[in-house]
Amino acid sequence: xxxxxxxxxxxxxxxxxxxxxxxxxxxxxxxxxxxxxxxxxxxxxxxxxxxxxxxxxxxxxxxxxxxxxxxxxxxxxxxxxxxxxxxxxxxxxxxxxxxxxxxxxxxxxxxxxxxxxxxxxxxxxxxxxxxxxxxxxxxxxxxxxxxxxxxxxxxxxxxxxxxxxxxxxxxxxxxxxxxxxxxxxxxxxxxxxxxxxxxxxxxxxxxxxxxxxxxxxxxxxxxxxxxxxxxxxxxxxxxxxxxxxxxxxxxxxxxxxxxxxxxxxxxxxxxxxxxxxxxxxxxxxxxxxxxxxxxxxxxxx
Amino acid sequence: xxxxxxxxxxxxxxxxxxxxxxxxxxxxxxxxxxxxxxxxxxxxxxxxxxxxxxxxxxxxxxxxxxxxxxxxxxxxxxxxxxxxxxxxxxxxxxxxxxxxxxxxxxxxxxxxxxxxxxxxxxxxxxxxxxxxxxxxxxxxxxxxxxxxxxxxxxxxxxxxxxxxxxxxxxxxxxxxxxxxxxxxxxxxxxxxxxxxxxxxxxxxxxxxxxxxxxxxxxxxxxxxxxxxxxxxxxxxxxxxxxxxxxxxxxxxxxxxxxxxxxxxxxxxxxxxxxxxxxxxxxxxxxxxxxxxxxxxxxxxxxxxxxxxxxxxxxxxx
Amino acid sequence: xxxxxxxxxxxxxxxxxxxxxxxxxxxxxxxxxxxxxxxxxxxxxxxxxxxxxxxxxxxxxxxxxxxxxxxxxxxxxxxxxxxxxxxxxxxxxxxxxxxxxxxxxxxxxxxxxxxxxxxxxxxxxxxxxxxxxxxxxxxxxxxxxxxxxxxxxxxxxxxxxxxxxxxxxxxxxxxxxxxxxxxxxxxxxxxxxxxxxxxxxxxxxxxxxxxxxxxxxxxxxxxxxxxxxxxxxxxxxxxxxxxxxxxxxxxxxxxxxxxxxxxxxxxxxxxxxxxxxxxxxxxxxxxxxxxxxxxxxxxxxxxxxxxxxxxxxxxxxxxxxxxxxxxxxxxxxxxxxxxxxxxx
Lengths: 301, 317, 344
Description:
C: Rossmann fold; 2 domains; globular
């Protein structure tokens, strides 16, 4: 997980100056460029499919993902009635993979969203106010930075004990510092531009200046950075469940399934690797989406 | 230069203080009484109280913290609840094994990444560039613990050429530099190196590409300098950024190896941490986390100082 | 609270619009073991000035002499370490005076970089409406004011209000910046290198517009520039700065016609002339300005001054009135100990 702060490039013109035609704002032009990016569109489609199918799983007429069967254990792929086989307890793999998306995605996306709110507010405050407040906030973040992120997540979850809430809590704590640091650095940059000084000279309140002049310029880079963290979060959340620190059995979750199916690698290796394929696809799509967004928003890594 | 290193070291003191607070808090984050992990639930109350007094859990938290800090600073990390051995000894032997794996993965990942990244930046054909971009994307997207399982499936289960787990042959007493031990390292090293490989390749590619587009390169070309000489100049300019990212990645390897060590039953700190979590051996959890964080801090400091030495643009005197 | 009408004149024409005395700003230099080196950049050092109502005060000096810091101090974008300011009789930021916010209603500023001083995410209309809205002007009135402002700076409101900064040329953007500075109906406008980045032809148009606006709106200007010709064209009085201090201050005729300080003379002689007969053979100033972290003792200009003597290193020359202008030079002070000092 590389923590590199993006830079705000104010001077890069978004759209070539046009002759007195209708001008476009920043966000419409980002949207237009995203719509012209086939890779991002495909990834968004795949993710949408995974998200929608996991949400609508009960409506899809799938087998019961919890129903075990002692005699139908570890069926291979392509078995009748079990398209993707069955797991070590005879549960339908296809259903479990679809249902598994619910927790896996939830546990990957939620911490990043929470960290985005908390870390974003802290970072923008630190960057805009500067001085002692900045020192105080950033020094606390430095303490969290003294831990490799995976170690921090595992130690926190390990101490808190297994469970969905504890995993969410520790993952959120892991992602607050990097988001805070990025928010602080882009806000500090934007604060240095003359238009912020001009706004201050107009006598507007700090909150108004942040709302009108700062947010619009820093939200892009922060959002791009946060989306690039989602894939890390999904892998990390699955990793915690894989270690037995996250979701508890018998809930379907990709990391946990990968763990319980390890005993099957000698019997049915392809089956044992399937949940990981789901994590891999999801994480690739999020990474490519993040790259597309970065390009469309013209944020320099 | 020395002044900068000293200042960084001095700055580490408050951070280290914060780290110690956080590590101390780990034990108290645990649900219930820290003592409940040690004694069976049906233990008589007098015994529990005795033990509480013995471990100092009956004192107020600040007192407990400073007591713990004082003892820890002497190098005493407590006693493992599971094995009864000193935590420091347990962590020390595991740490050595983790470092061996981390060094192997670092060397492998970084040399390959520099090669791939530079060739992609230099590539005239889009195919090479695309391919390298793909590889680095795979590296950062793949769940590395899953890759570890896949490697075991392919090379151990299906092909039977490489051992699936352990540090060395069954009678091995510790890591040695010989073929049977090296054979055991191959799969964990590959699994561990994918993330840094992806991240560093990406950084090298973009930094070298950016440097190549700078005007001084055009000037060197106009001067008639040979390509390999120009490459030296370019790499020298790209080095500081790449070094910074590499340093962070090397540090993250130590943390990231927890999952890999668990898959391969590699007796390192990650393996130790994982088993400690399940035995609720809190002293081990605390000790391992402290040692790893301390190492990570020193590594970051070193990278920072080296980067300042390499990069004349940063003046931190 | 207000419908943003222009602030009434209070003290009459004889009372200076803005009086600043003893302004000082030292920026700490990072470094040392604890991140504090104990050293400071003396950006502005005990500077006093007054601006009369309706005049244009030109401020000239080399880059790095503290011109921009003065501008930012006067509008309180940075807080001075010490010094006081009085705006038309009212002390600023003092118990019985006016607040910094009231100061900013009456004093506005135009920045040099026309791109960096406009928010790229806002349309021109939104940028111009920001300050009036922040002061409580209703949306409809703010819209009307935007049209009025654009009109004043010579940009067609229907065409430009909906545009983004990157769609405008440098000259158009600077016109917008001027419009923004006028949005609160200020009395004093500080123009910090406001036309320096523009092409010469565009610069002339904008300068003429500034002159027209001044008469139309009864404005007072502080015009900061390194371009001596432009300052001469626009100013009534001129202030010459060197390393955070005033070296000479006087009417534009006096400064340009009979410069007294060696630095002012060197600056003026270094300016390119189109007239071959007026080209000087005199050598321009040598070298770069000294480091403001450790300015020379005594007179700060002595390291580059051809007339420097022992006394210049020993004592700092005060800004002394010589009749037409005030000069800070030992040669202009009788009995200062300089061999070329004027006779009493």
